[in-house]
């Protein structure tokens, strides 16, 4: 239909256009996409066999929906993507506050327009992007915000009695007639405000002060909620929960590969960062940190660990390499494993710590999570160091640990030039052989990153010592570092 040519009610009727509810519209367009094997929720990963089928069933059932899950589980993203299931253009009576359907107006304004102008009633068209309203539930939200209230200024300026329907200033929900309306963090809405939604969800009408007003509102409601909120900040009142037809539980990515897809899609790569060499292992470590955080005894599991942690961490990782290349005047930038400590600020702001975690300190917990991630991934590529410790004749790690026990150290400065960085790592024996024996297919640029990974991994398994200082990461012999520490304590005493 060429919407630009239809300007009046008469022309709209001649075109054969017919009304349908917003839920029927969503349902029919979803049916069409499913039949054509089209992707319905583009850019959503990890929900293909869980959340998305449930959401599609709810839409086919014409249900109001509650998306229940921890933070950073794409609840709002899913709601916003439902807009693509609406018709591209929708006709309304021009000038209508509540998107009056030209064939079935619900407001006094719309009915009067048709009564006075008939077939010449002017028609306007609104795009589907304008048919989405989102409200964050906060304790200060009022019934007037959502439903509406009497506007004394309108009454005075139009010289209307307070009994006239035209003095009403409509809230967000009536203005979302024939649209999708989303309330984020529903439990944060005060109970008395939640009560005001009962009639809208069940009967489709609203109550504003003393007005006998019945508006058959046509709205697709989508709510989001965090299960933590049910105990910490509020709850969804039972009668309202009963009126929400489908509650769909969301979850975090089920694998590192899915997490990497999400991070690749969402992370903002700035101008000048596109050429930075990023080993795939670096991406794995970032995702594994989030996994470790979700399982950590120091992190509040009820609060969850948002996918925003890995996104922000990856952006910081890129910026660490970029900063070094700028300071050294180098044209190429490569991610180093020692850059991983540049992501600590992205972790500390994204995890809720339990009491024990607060006692440890956010920075220490973040570094521990990094260490655990490296430890977990290390044994996926190299022999288990715990077993290597028990081998009497030595292991593949013996030449490396011997190098450090002979008094050698490796000091990796944050701003080491690439040539210096390479010389320091190449000085450690047996690491090339270890990489070769593990049959790893890596590029020459990534080889140094993997050498660092070996040092970091061995330090996590206590075969060598690692110290994190302000501007460097220092590897040395474990025994000598312990003796130095004892001497330091003795002198302090």
Give an account of the 3D structure:
With 493 residues, the protein is an alpha/beta fold. The protein has 23 helices and twelve strands. The strands form four sheets. Strands 4-7-8-1-9 form a five-stranded parallel β-sheet, covered by helices on one side. α12 packs across α14. The termini are far apart. The C terminus is likely disordered.
Strand content: 5-15%
CATH homologous superfamily label of the largest domain: P-loop containing nucleotide triphosphate hydrolases
The beta-strand count equals 12
**Biggest β-sheet description:** 5 strands, parallel
How do the strands of the widest beta sheet line up side by side? 4-7-8-1-9
**Total discrete domains:** 3
Give short descriptive properties of this protein:
single chain; alpha/beta; Rossmann fold; Helicase, Ruva Protein, domain 3; 3 domains; 5-stranded parallel beta sheet; 3-stranded antiparallel beta sheet; disordered C terminus
Topology:
Layout: H1 9-14, H2 22-35, H3 51-60, E1 65-68, H4 75-81, E2 89-93, H5 108-117, E3 123-127, E4 132-136, H6 143-146, E5 148-150, H7 152-158, E6 168-170, E7 179-184, H8 191-195, H9 198-202, E8 219-225, H10 229-232, H11 238-243, E9 246-249, H12 256-266, H13 280-295, H14 308-328, H15 344-348, H16 355-360, H17 362-381, H18 385-389, H19 398-405, E10 410-413, H20 418-426, H21 431-437, H22 444-460, E11 465-468, E12 472-476, H23 478-492
Helix pairs in contact: 12-13, 12-14, 13-14, 13-17, 17-22
């Amino acid at each position: 239909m060429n919407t630009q040519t239809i300007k009046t009610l008469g022309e709209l009727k001649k075109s054969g256009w017919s009304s349908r509810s917003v839920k029927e519209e969503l349902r029919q367009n979803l049916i069409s996409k499913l039949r054509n094997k089209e992707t319905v929720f583009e850019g959503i990963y990890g929900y293909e066999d869980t959340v998305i089928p449930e959401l599609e069933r709810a839409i086919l059932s014409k249900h109001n929906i509650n998306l229940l899950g921890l933070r950073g589980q794409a609840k709002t993203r899913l709601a916003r993507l439902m807009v693509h299931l609406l018709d591209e253009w929708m006709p309304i009576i021009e000038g209508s506050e509540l998107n009056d359907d030209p064939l079935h107006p619900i407001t006094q304004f719309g009915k009067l327009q048709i009564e006075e102008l008939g077939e010449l009633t002017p028609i306007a068209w609104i795009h589907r992007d304008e048919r989405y309203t989102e409200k964050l539930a906060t304790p200060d939200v009022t019934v007037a915000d959502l439903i509406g209230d009497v506007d004394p200024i309108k009454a005075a300026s139009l010289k209307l009695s307070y009994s006239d329907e035209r003095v009403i200033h409509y809230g967000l929900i009536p203005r979302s007639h024939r649209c999708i309306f989303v309330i984020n963090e529903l439990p944060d809405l005060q109970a008395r405000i939640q009560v005001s939604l009962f009639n809208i969800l069940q009967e489709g009408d609203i109550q504003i002060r003393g007005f006998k007003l019945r508006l058959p509102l046509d709205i697709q409601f989508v709510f989001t909620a965090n299960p933590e909120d049910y105990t910490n900040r509020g709850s969804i009142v039972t009668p309202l929960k009963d009126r929400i037809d489908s509650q769909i539980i969301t979850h975090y990515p089920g694998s590192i590969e899915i997490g990497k897809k999400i991070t690749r899609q969402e992370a903002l790569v700035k101008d000048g960062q596109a050429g930075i060499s990023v080993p795939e292992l670096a991406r794995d470590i970032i995702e594994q940190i989030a996994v470790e955080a979700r399982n950590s005894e120091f992190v509040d599991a009820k609060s969850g660990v948002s996918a925003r942690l890995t996104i922000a961490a990856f952006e910081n990782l890129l910026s660490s390499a970029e900063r070094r290349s700028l300071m050294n005047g180098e044209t190429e930038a490569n991610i180093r494993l020692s850059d991983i400590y540049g992501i600590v600020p992205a972790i500390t702001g994204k995890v809720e710590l339990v009491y024990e975690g607060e006692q440890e300190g956010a920075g220490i917990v973040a570094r521990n999570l990094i260490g655990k991630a490296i430890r977990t991934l290390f044994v996926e590529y190299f022999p288990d160091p715990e077993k290597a410790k028990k081998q009497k004749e030595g292991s593949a790690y013996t030449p490396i640990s011997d190098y450090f026990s002979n008094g050698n150290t490796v000091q990796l400065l944050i701003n080491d030039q690439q040539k210096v960085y390479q010389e320091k790592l190449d000085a450690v024996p047996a690491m090339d052989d270890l990489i070769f024996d593990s049959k790893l297919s890596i590029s020459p640029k990534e080889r140094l990153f993997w050498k660092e990974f070996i040092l970091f991994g061995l330090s996590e398994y206590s075969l060598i010592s690692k110290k994190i200082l302000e501007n460097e990461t220092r590897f040395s012999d474990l025994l000598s570092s312990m003796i130095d520490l004892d001497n330091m304590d003795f002198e302090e005493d």
